[in-house]
Design goal:
It is a single chain. By secondary structure, the protein is mainly alpha-helical. It has one domain (45-331): ABC transporter involved in vitamin B12 uptake, BtuC. 79% of the residues lie in helices and 1% in strands. It is built from 15 helices and two strands. It has helices at residues 2-10, 12-27, 38-45, 49-74, 78-98, 112-130, 138-158, 164-171, 179-208, 210-215, 220-242, 248-251, 253-261, 265-289, 294-331; strands spanning 102-103, 106-107. It has a two-stranded antiparallel sheet with strand order 1-2. It starts with a helix and ends with a helix.
């Protein structure tokens, strides 16, 4: 974990530059007034194409993150998913750094999303091959994560232009997403959801008890690799909304809340999707009226909800156990 801290510390100059750019961009647009009529306010927001794209892309990413996130929490892969986002950041900054470079008489123009996908998918396959051995490998994953952040810093230093794409990757830039990006996100989201639907039953079985599933003939190793690739796609999609540094807000928090509310997989996935949608849409709605990043509001609502649920069950647990303790005391 200390190595991760050092790598994040090395990112501070880039983060300061990115934050300055974000503040300048936000300060140039005054905050519109709110009418406190929810229907009218939503209609006003949807008059603008960038808000339409943001709500649509946010919905797609939230649904995918809600479904995939449930299995991430169930399989104990939260840290692995977090590591994938940072590894993807290195690939994205590498693509940005190579753009404009002349090679064999051709000028390279590599989209940042392509570099993100390549790095996350390759890393996901490696983690999937480890299978259940990935549990307890936090030290190894943390070292790779720290190296990936350092690699991202190197690529940023090699990039001669203004690092606006790096800012978007680190913190999310959903308000700047184009219609073409929405279509790409929609296609990637559809592929991810279809793959999850196909693998749902065997993946659920293997997630609860991989040894029994393997004894029953379920291809546990293949499922592990396939799910990690699906997770890589989900991470690549979610980065557009909340960024690399805040990926937990959509990928883990809604599923963690849902898992505490119900033990039924189908119901938990539905709650996870609804929570992810709610956090994203409410975050977009509030950010429209305030000069602060969308990702801040999404993560704040997600964190606040998780804390409230934890507190509720902690208080409820005390009151439920109290009669039992009184009865035990009387019997003694």
């Amino acid at each position: 974990m200390f190595a991760i801290f050092l790598s994040i510390k090395s990112l501070l100059p880039a983060l300061r530059l990115a934050a300055l750019h974000g503040q300048q961009a936000q300060s140039s647009f005054p905050s519109p007034p709110i009418s406190w009529n929810l229907f009218d306010d939503v209609q006003t927001q949807l008059q603008y194409a960038f808000m339409q794209n943001a709500y649509l892309a946010g919905a797609i990413v939230a649904v995918v993150a809600g479904v995939v996130g449930y299995f991430v929490v169930l399989r104990g892969l939260s840290f692995a998913g977090h590591a994938l986002s940072h590894i993807g950041f290195a690939g994205a900054t590498g693509a940005v750094a190579l753009s404009g470079v002349s090679m064999f008489g051709l000028i390279l123009n590599i989209p940042a999303v392509f570099g993100l996908l390549v790095f996350t998918v390759v890393s996901a396959v490696g983690m999937g091959i480890l299978g259940k051995r990935i549990h307890g490998r936090d030290v190894a994953i943390g070292i790779v994560l720290a190296w990936a952040l350092g690699l991202g810093v190197l690529f940023l230093s090699l990039y001669t232009g203004y690092a606006t794409e790096a800012y978007a990757l680190l913190f999310g830039e959903i308000l700047g997403i184009s219609l073409q990006d929405v279509l790409i996100t929609m296609i990637a989201g559809a592929i991810t959801l279809v793959a999850m639907a196909v693998l749902y039953r065997p993946l659920l079985f293997a997630s609860f008890d991989d040894e029994v599933a393997e004894a029953r003939g379920v291809p546990v190793r293949f499922l592990s690799i396939a799910f990690m690739v699906i997770l890589a796609l989900a991470v690549s999609e979610a980065v557009q909304v909340v960024g690399v540094l805040l990926i937990f807000a959509l990928l883990v928090t809604p599923a963690a809340i849902a898992e505490r509310l119900t033990a039924r997989p189908g119901r938990a996935i539905l709650i996870s999707v609804l929570l992810a949608l709610g956090f994203t849409w409410v975050g977009l709605f509030v950010a429209y009226y305030l000069p602060y990043p969308v990702s801040f509001f999404i993560t704040t609502f997600a964190f606040g909800s998780y804390v409230l649920v934890r507190l509720f069950f902690a208080v409820r647990g005390r009151f439920v156990r109290r009669p039992e303790r009184v009865l035990e005391g009387k019997l003694a």
